[in-house]
Design a protein that fits this description.
The chain has helices at about 1-25, 40-45, 60-65, 95-105, 135-155, 185-200, 220-230, 245, 250-265, 275-285, 320-325; strands at about 30-35, 70-75, 110-115, 165, 175, 180, 205-210, 235-240, 265-275, 290-300. Strand 9 (about 265-275), helix 10 and strand 10 form a beta-alpha-beta unit. The protein is built from eleven helices and ten strands.
């Protein structure tokens, strides 16, 4: 009987693995995405989320029922480090693997956002991971490549490879300061190439995004992209953040993205936003040559115009998304 139970468990595990691999092949031509990296933290605190029937439900399932088809997760190098994000390890590899299984089991696309830091990386801070801080240029590039490879290899082994990967988070001012800040363009390009090499060593089909926080800033967007392209950085998608308090009006966003769509061969995603939901999606899905392929609302469980209220129930902001999905035939 013991052997029979083990056999049944192994069979069920095999079915789950096959299911995850099948789900990982699902393609999404248009993306309606959400970054919900805080979800495991909130669930650990006992927070629950409720669907239309006010029954506690997996937040991922609720998002899917409202038209979302893609989830974005951030990953830190070592969030348990002294200056790291979380002593409990939230947003580390182990937590990312758990969330990746849930995403793929739901049949949704998966975007993985490497911060290449033990804590938040954004235009105001890009700290080298503590384990790498004494590395020179070659050592740092090797670390970027190896860490990227190790993370993706672990995800591949469980059948949950991301469909898309960001090499850095909001890197228009560079990454891993001071080594690869924006004043050291050759070094920055070298670090991006190292991360991209790590991705390609695991799966050459994963889409690669360069993510900058310049939603309404055309000159700055072009400076970054022109310099990386001139230095041979190969990527598939231009990612832009858009928050009106930092990036201007929706007209600024439209003008910038329209110019980028006509100027570069890469597709475009608004990979972080929260306000102006309908306007942002209307701009994105009406770019020239269908270059606008999707959006990701940032941390809609808790941030700014969140689509769940404090008690975990859907609110008025959530109602926008089925309309957007229907309007642009997002599946």
């Amino acid at each position: 009987m013991k052997h029979l139970k083990i056999a049944i468990l192994l069979f069920a595990t095999g079915l789950m693995s096959l299911s995850l691999k099948a789900q990982s092949k699902i393609k999404h031509d248009k993306i309606l995405g959400a970054d919900i990296s805080w979800l495991p933290q909130f669930e650990a605190q006992g927070k629950k989320y409720y669907g239309d029937d006010s029954v506690a439900t997996d937040a991922i399932a609720i998002l899917k029922a409202h038209g979302f088809n893609y989830i974005r997760l951030r990953i830190f190098n070592n969030p348990r480090a002294d200056s790291g994000y979380s002593k409990k390890g939230f947003c580390d590899l182990a937590e990312t693997m758990k969330m990746a299984r849930r995403i793929k089991a739901a049949g949704m696309g998966f975007l993985l956002d490497f911060h290449y830091s033990d804590n938040w990386a954004d235009p105001g801070k890009q700290h080298i991971p503590s384990a790498w801080k004494n590395a020179g240029y070659a050592g740092l590039a090797d670390s970027v490549r190896n860490f990227t490879t190790d993370v993706l290899t672990a995800l591949k082994k469980q059948g949950t490879l991301p469909d898309m990967v960001q090499v850095g988070n909001e890197i228009n001012h560079g990454m891993m300061w001071p080594m690869a800040n924006i004043t050291h363009l050759d070094t920055l390009a070298g670090m991006l190439k190292a991360g991209i090499a790590g991705i390609k060593s695991v799966d050459k089909h994963i889409k690669i995004m360069l993510h900058i926080a310049c939603g309404g800033q055309n000159k700055e967007s072009r400076f970054f992209l022109d310099n990386m392209i001139a230095r041979g950085v190969k990527f598939d998608i231009i990612g832009e953040s858009y928050y009106p308090e930092w990036h201007g009006t929706t007209e600024d966003l439209k003008n910038n993205l329209t110019d980028l769509a006509s100027r570069y061969k890469q597709d475009i995603i608004v990979v972080e936003y929260t306000q102006k939901k309908e306007e942002v999606n209307d701009i994105e899905f009406n770019l020239p040559d269908k270059k606008g392929i999707g959006t990701f609302i940032w941390e809609p469980l808790n941030y700014q115009e969140a689509i769940f209220d404090r008690s975990g129930h859907e609110n008025e902001y959530m109602k926008v998304y089925p309309k957007i999905a229907a309007k642009y035939n997002i599946k």
